[in-house]
Amino acid sequence: MNDNEELDRATGEQTVEKLEFRLGPLGAAVPLLFFVVWAITISVLQLSSEVALVLGSVMGVTLGLLLCKSKWEDYAQGLFDGLAQPIGVIAMVAWFYAGMFAQILQVGGLVEGLVWIGSVTGVEGGLFVALTFLLAAVFSTAVGTGYGTTVAFCTLMYPAGVAVGGDPTFMFAAILAGAVFGDNLAPVSDTTIVSATTQEADVPGVVRSRFKYSIAAALPAVILFAVFGGGGTATEQASAGSIMETVGPSGLIMLVPFAIVLILALSGQHLLTSLTWGILSAIVLILLVAPGTLGDIIRFDPDSDNVVQGALVSGLTGYFNMAILILLIVGSAHLMRLGGTMAAITEGLVKWIRNSVRRAELSIWAIVALLNSSITINTAAEIAAAPFVKEIGEKYQIHRYRRANMLDAVTSALGYIFPWGAPVLLGWSTIQTIKADSYDWLPVVEPTAVFPFVFQGWFLFIIMLIAALTGWGLRYEGKNGEELMERPDENES
Q1: Which of 20, 267, 327, 456 shows the greatest Cβ crowding within 10 Å of its Cβ?
Q2: What pTM did the predictor assign?
Q3: pLDDT tens sequence across 76-92
Q4: Would you say 276 and 316 are in contact if contact means Cβ atoms under 8 Å apart?
Q5: Exposed (0-12), middle (13-18) or buried (19+): which is 89, by Cβ within 10 Å?
């Protein structure tokens, strides 16, 4: 056993403690740096996809191998050590359960039920836009997927809102803003899960601690949507009526499983326990009273390439590529740690930060913002930023809830703002599709036109900057993980 390895007493396997690279710490960063450059490039070329991101990460890991001066088997073992870290595995399993839960709620007609609320209220113009934001926020908090919210509401709520006098740009922005709210706050959101697990925090505590930030951004957002969202013309009442005829209140029963998951998660139950009860209760309700059938949940078609189909399968397969990606990025981050990159970056930042927690939080805010401006899929950007947030945050004893909130809020905010962001392009393409298929009168809002008005995203982004500058909500980590108002080492001195 060489100097770079130690024997794991529990398993008898060898784990690598250090690797040497050509170019030093910079060489160790090549796997992750290549991934980031690759992600930016395919984003600019509008070729971004989850599979393409996985390929970029694999290529980066391969380049790192070629730059490694240590034994290649040590590099491979170091990579496998990183892949085996609980952080990535926990996030993967939680994603699978959350994906199944989201798909089942959609089968049960939750989005149609929420659209029905909009139809019976009789509101129009800016008030309908504000209502759309609130309903999208509820739906995204229930299902935990901002992408799914964007597609569902662009399909149903967007044409309805435009038809009753909502400004098309503000309608699209309200949907994206609602997706931001749920992506940030939902216990079952992928970004919530990643932000909590990568900072070794519990999901219930993280959600409770970030509620104030989400609401502080949502209150002015809903007011602005109501005031400025009514610039359209209500000239397509017949079209609006045809949309509303297809929806009904029965899907609102799916709010019961959502409430079950929310209550269990916030009461301290494990996320998988909460999601399991949510899935089971949703299935029972679909079989008894809600729209949908058992075949919508799971069915078998031996004549199809996909023999097993339905919501449960869709919930799983929707996260397969991201599951692979999170493992590769976690592994790449571990290689950076073994090659000294993390230590070098932290040392450089510490020279600027000195003993200022404010500067430490500003550094965290800036790193997360930079990566989310570059990588179009917000979860991937969050995974890439997480090791830096943890390293700096632990150095200055910033509580894990606070670190997770800074990581998730900035990620959720920027992911739905930039014109090159995946969910913005997803919503844009959805609107184009429904225009071509169903509503030839429907205006299509360009991504470059909508980004200034995604108010929840912009307010959340600014609020976290203010929090970093002023220390609002800042808590420190005690010896047993408790939240402290003052920094422990200052008390000891």
Answers
A1: 456
A2: 0.74
A3: 998 988 888 776 777 67
A4: no
A5: middle
